[in-house]
Amino acid sequence: MSSTSTEVHHGPKPYWNPYLSGIGLGLVLLLSYVIMGRGLGASGAFSSLVATGVSTIAPEHARANTFYNEYLADTTKSPLKDWLVFEVLGVLAGGFISGALAGRIKKTVEKGPRISVRGRLFFAFIGGTMMGVGAKLARGCTSGQALTGGAVLNVGSWAFMLAVFGGAYMIAYFFRRQWK
Amino acid sequence: MNAPFFKYGLFGDDVSLVVAFVIGIGFGFFLERGGFGNGRKLAAQFYFNDLTVFKVMFTAIITAMVGIYYLSVIGWMDLSLVYLNPTYIVPQTVGGLLLGFGFVIGGYCPGTSCVSAVTGKIDGMVYLLGIVVGIFIFGEIFPLISTFYTSTPMGQITLSQLFNIPYGILVFAVVMMAIGGFAAAEWAEKKLGNKIVEP
pTM (2 decimals)? Predict the structure, then answer.
């Protein structure tokens, strides 16, 4: 996994300086505000996806539900023809481009040394599920609330951000075997 | 300059989807550059080994915040046309806690799991599947929790309005706090032996 400096051109390149990556991300966010009048997002795209899936399988059930219906309201277009869906497709492309340029694309499971692959994937699924519920309850995730709302000093976004860090630090000790 | 361009009708909905894709490329690119496609690096934030998450996030927030402030002060950007997500303080705090739990347990958040999955990480792919299932669960229980979901509404409100502090002073204070936080983070990483997570 880790490579020494003498063989760096064989293995993956190191990550960028965090402040440099942060300025890059901040400029992308600023550009989004200047061009679109809105910030970034991620979880919203998956809501469109879920709403589309549910309405394909059970159209009446989806229509009767205010949460799904919010994504299905405009019947003149597909719910997947949505700003956040296209933005997330871009995230996938951008992540791939960056990873490919740095030699960091590799089939692997990121985990600490004291947990099995199966155990790690189980927790990844559970964590993802909690994130899905939490992000919808909070009306956005780390992208749509913390970054996007953080930059315009939105009250709910800052409360959300404190809660995310607070919640994570609160339980980190109990899950240390997964990472350390 | 009249920003936001889209709100001033410079282009239509179809072009906005192209813009979305291009902005997404930038977003995904810098997330991956910073190491945010790696669950070990993200989780390390919560064990104080590697505080990259804090550094990248707050550098991004203050960069965009100062930019937006500056453009609005010189009159190039109309802040009233910028979307502000309405605040529902209690459900958002509870959602945030749940998200924090999911972050440590699963290793990612939605945006970072996309970058993880697309760079070959199986845990990132499984995490994405979990998000879809989680949103489905939320959708199915929504009729039961909709009262809670819409509780404690505060409307579209900024910290500057809530605490009655002038916008510019608050921007300055947040920048100062972030810089203080960066100094503390650098100190803590050194103190704990620089266990920075590499690819």
Answer: 0.95
